[in-house]
Amino acid sequence: MKRLLGLLPDPLLILLLATIGAATLWPADGRVADMVSSVATLAIVLLFFLHGVRLPRENLAAAARNWRLHLAILAATFIVFPLLGLGLALAFPNVLRAELWIGILFLCALPSTVQSSVIFTSIGQGNVAGSVTSAAASNLLGIAATPFIIGLMTHAQADAVSFSAVWKIVLQLLLPFGVGHACRPWLGAWAARNKQLLTITDRGTIVLAVYSAFSAAVIGGIWHQIPIADLLVLTGLCLLLLGAMLLITRTTARASGLDTADEVSAIMCGTQKSLVTGVPMARVLFAPADVGMVILPVMIYHQAQLIACAWLARRYAAKQPEPSYARPVDNR
User: Fold this and answer.
1) What is the DSSP annotation of 131-190?
2) What are phi and psi of 286, to 5 degrees?
3) Which top CATH class is 2-319?
4) What is the pLDDT of residues 209-252, one digit of tens each?
5) In the chain, N or C: fewer CB atoms in 10 Å?
6) What average pLDDT does this structure show over 269-291?
7) SS3 of 95, please?
8) Distances (CA, A) of 246 to 238, 249, 303, 304
9) CB-side neighbour CA atoms (13 Å) of 134
10) Cα separation values, 75 from 237, 266, 271, 303, 319, Å
């Protein structure tokens, strides 16, 4: 039963599919679209403010420890993954339309997840403390690194993202995050007591952003522009990226001399891509009519990574009789 449950779609993905259906049947247009867009922008600002409030300052300090693990995860997230995606785009430019390739490149440039990376590391009896630190560092760096990386890659492809969009990232994401982190001494305890409320805020923000994005995409004729064959090819490419990164992170972890617990952390953090960060960031970086196509690869990859990592985590757990949840971050 547990194995079957692990293969079920993520509840967030089901919610997003329902949101896409609502946007397809009742797309926001005119003044309603402007109102939804404004509310979504405010929600994104609030989301990153709360992320800043929730990030423990000690996690930033801990990033300097166990440098081999953190370096392996960050290199996989922000170097290997983007290069792999760019290589596919340059090798097979005609298998997908340009907007979907931009979506794949955007997926490759995103930071790691926090919640699911840590959960799967815990299930696989990996280095939980190391995963928390690396995932937090990945998301913090991603606010600045993702726009820069996608700017480089799309400039090489079709100049789809202007570097001036980084200023919007600063105003809508980085600045609220910094202000939130500065307010942590006063709001940190409140955030710790209201995790469920903050989870609802996270998901509500994503739903608003997806509805706004797909409303514009539907009005622009997205479902007439993407045949079923393209969706199948897109899914296949996402699965190829996931399989390649799982193999690369495992091989790299073993070649670097990481122990099994650190190997689990490297795989679970280095292969995951954040939907929570990706959807709001896509809305900031790309034109409204393009956002729907851009986030399609992120949504497909999100579900695939959950299924694959849940299966892998159970396999690692079966090989390790002793739990390592409380294992400290070592100072190698």
Assistant:
1) HHHHHHHHHHHHHHHHHHHHHHHHHHHT--S-TTHHHHHIIIIIHHHHHHHHTHHHHHHH
2) -115, 160
3) mainly alpha
4) 788 877 877 887 777 778 888 999 999 999 999 999 999 999 99
5) N
6) 85
7) coil
8) 12, 5, 15, 12
9) 36
10) 21, 10, 11, 23, 27
Which residues lie closer than 8 Å to 296 by C-beta, 6 or more apart? Answer: 100, 103, 226, 234
Domain ranges of the chain: 2-319
State which amino acid sits at residue 33: A
Residue 110: predicted pLDDT = 94
Tokens describing residue 16: 């997003």
Angle at 53 between CA 48 and CA 58, to 5 degrees: 120
Hey, CA dihedral for 205, 210, 215, 216, is it positive or negative? positive
Residue 174 has pLDDT above 60, yes or no: yes
Are 283 and 213 within 8 A, CB to CB? yes
Sign of the alpha-carbon dihedral angle for 305, 111, 297, 95: negative
As a whole number of angstroms, the distance between CA 197 and CA 158 comes to 41
* pLDDT above 70 for 157: no
pLDDT for position 114: 74
- Show the tokens assigned to 47: 């989301």
Residue in the block written with tokens 């952003």: 209
- 114-127 pLDDT tens trace: 777 877 888 888 88
